[in-house]
Amino acid sequence: MKSLCKVMIVDDEMLVRQGIKHLMNWEQAGFRIVGEAANGLEALDLVEEVKPHIILTDIVMPIMDGEKFVKIVKERHPKMEVIVLSSFSEFEYVRSTFQSGVADYILKPKLEAEYLLSILNKTAARIAELQETALEEPAEERYIEQAAEKLIAGYEAELPPGVLNSVLPGDSYVLIGMDLKHIAVQEVRSSLIQMVETMISQIADTASIHLNMKDQALYILNMNSEIWNSLIMDVRGGIGQLPPEQKSGVHMVMTERFTDFYQLGAVYRNQFLSLARYSFYMPDKHFIYVGDLPDLPQVTADLDMGELTEQLKRKQFQKGFAGFLEHIHLKSMDYRTDIFEFKAYLGNFIFNVTNTLGKLKYDTERLEQSKYEFFRRIDEAAYARDAIQRIVDFIHEAEQVIGETNTAVNPNMAMLLSYIQEHYREPITLTEVAKQFHFNPSYLSSYFSAHNNEGFSEYLNKIRVQKAKELLTSTEESISEISAQVGYSDQSYFTKVFKKLTGLSPSTYRREQFAKED
């Protein structure tokens, strides 16, 4: 039995892609949608991964248009067939693609199921490997995949009798997966998907279905309700066992369980997508499940930009900048905040500061030129802390314009680092340091991580371990005594931290250093 004809869709309009995907029962007609992309550049990587027989591509797209995309595909894969989608006004572009060897074109106003299928069948007839044997029937799993993808896209779906219980016999379902939008490199994406599949395959007493979703590794897990608690522990444990280098960019999302398969679309839209967005504010949280979400901060009203403007007019620059930084750090702790609104709020700050300094007769030419780059970098930020760092960078530039350097940022950080280095022997905590500098502890934690590229605890441990290494090689004091001298009351915990940062236990480190001296 021959394979289904593999089709890939390339169009910058998501609604067009969704419309094509749900225009007909593809597998019943002998075809399978194996991937979709929003522009030619993105599609080139996907072509290498899914190896489609036929590509349906738009002409006018951002980044890389269809004309250039078709030319590259036909150069690399002359046997792949390409069908171009276009409007009446784009026919000159379509004509040029025929020189590259496209199979046919379809005017978008004629994009109806029967007409599209006739073009696809005519094109598929030109592909030798598809003409060998009779058409294979779709497996039961594919029926479920198709129904699930329709439900997620907002369409109605119906399964043949008995299929659901045959493939997914448990009484409960859960959606689990990962958003891949922030992962640009296709090889990294493939590696993450493989990692997710391996982890899911190791979860006992569950059945799973992989859904073909753009920019997501998404799976339906099916199980009986009595294993729900152990399932959560298994997923959490699986992620916890990943090596640190593999956790970068990993945010596994899991919804609450549900019992009706046909609720899948609502669960995806109301739970999965919301949880996936939360990772923007929680870059170090690798498992995002509603039962594990951190407590929300007290509601913080948006800072009055008019008040900020007045502070700038009165040349209270340090007060204005520092106040805004504290405010956005607190705001970033509310993971429910709309990401677009958060980024727009940061952009509004840049616009207001630049505009106000211009009215105060400062030379803002440099700021006017660079503000659009700041807007772009904020828009592209994968995490809130990255977007906030762009604001810190902007404030540095603004301080240079007004002739006051390091007023709002560096002195605070310099004093913090100096304080830690002076008091590392003491049992200091983030809360105590925050009180010392009159900061909100939550703000200080976010501020420290954003500006110092590591958290408060990580920095404190690094300082303590460095001091311990000096004592281990310069004194004959016991490990217990050194542990106490560098601020650890628990020797076993000191040993654990030391080994984590150096790869060696304190005693092994001491022996190796003495051996080198001999």
TrEMBL record:
Domain HTH araC/xylS-type positions: 414-512
Pfam families: HTH_18, Response_reg
Keywords carried by this UniProt record: DNA-binding, Phosphoprotein, Transcription, Transcription regulation
Residues where 4-aspartylphosphate is found: 58
Ranges that cross the membrane: none
Source organism superkingdom: Bacteria
Database matches in InterPro entries: CheY-like_superfamily (IPR011006), Homeodomain-like_sf (IPR009057), HTH_AraC (IPR018060), HTH_AraC-typ_CS (IPR018062), Sig_transdc_resp-reg_receiver (IPR001789), Tscrpt_reg_AraC-type_HTH (IPR020449)
Domain Response regulatory, first and last residues per copy: 6-123
Cross-referenced PANTHER family: ARAC-FAMILY TRANSCRIPTIONAL REGULATOR, HTH-TYPE TRANSCRIPTIONAL ACTIVATOR RHAS
Name this polypeptide is given: Response regulator
Native source organism of the sequence: Paenibacillus shunpengii
